[in-house]
Each structure stands twice: as structure tokens, then as C-alpha cells.
Amino acid sequence: xxxxxxxxxxxRFWAWLIDILLVxxxxxxxxxxxxxxxxxxxxxxxxxxxxGLLIFIYWTLFEGYTGQSVGKMALSLKVxxxxxxxxxxxxxxxxxxxxAFLLPLDCLIGWLxxxxxxxxxxxxxxxxxxxxxxxxEPEGVRYVKEDE
Length: 148
Hints:
The protein is mainly alpha-helical. The protein has one domain (9-131). The chain has 7 helices and 2 strands. It has helices at residues 9-33, 35-39, 43-65, 70-74, 89-101, 103-113, 121-126; strands at 77-81, 128-132. Strands 1-2 form a two-stranded antiparallel sheet. The longest helix has 25 residues, at 9-33. The protein is globular. The protein starts with 8 loop residues before the first helix and ends in a 16-residue tail after the last strand. 26% of the residues are buried. The model has no long low-confidence stretch (mean pLDDT 86).
């Protein structure tokens, strides 16, 4: 029997923050470089829409392909199915939808309806979990620190 360690909310928050900041910078560059949004005075609304769409695509692609966004990689976290296996792009899109567009409700419903489960509502709907990854050297390889 394999042991799977569910990620703490705190670790998940920091990974989320890294991702939001990273995609936020990209979103700002897109919105501010586009004269269309600026000319019509929709900068805030356009920025919100572009950011939401970009973060949704970002999470869907990264987590659908590797299970990890940049924030999750930095904090050794991974999105998996309930058995710890890889998720595909469809499942990643469903799981990402809640945190990209409905995060406050997604978390609140998860915390209230499923206390101590460490699941957001869209984790439950998509049958995903966020786990702490463990570092292991590949079989037959040993890493040695270089003397300084």
C-alpha cells in the first residue's frame, strides 16, 4: 500500500500565489500593450477577463501535462487523481475552472461541506487531490555534493 500525503492549505496557497503573480505579469503586459482595451476604458474589466482566461489555460495545460504548475513545482506539490495517478487535460480543465473563476466559493464550499478533507469543491467534482511530492534519486544513481 502506497502512502499519499495530501498537501497543506498553506502550501497550496503559496503555490497559487506564485502562479497568480506569474500569470498576472503576463496578463498586464497583454492588456496594457493593447490599445483596444485602453481606448474604450475597459482596462480593469479586460484585465480581469484576460487574467482569468490566462490562468485557466495556464493551469489546464501545466497540470494536464505534468500535474504541476510553476508554483506547485516550486513547493513540491502535484495534482493527481485519487490514487496518485496522472490527470489528463479534460480533468485538469474541470479542476482549474473552480480556482480560476470561482475560487472563493470553491474553497468555502469545500471547507464547509467537506471539513478536514483538504479538497476544494472542484477537487471533489473532478476527483482530484493535491499531494506533496517526494524527492527520490533515480534507481542506481547516487547524488554527491561537490566539495567547495
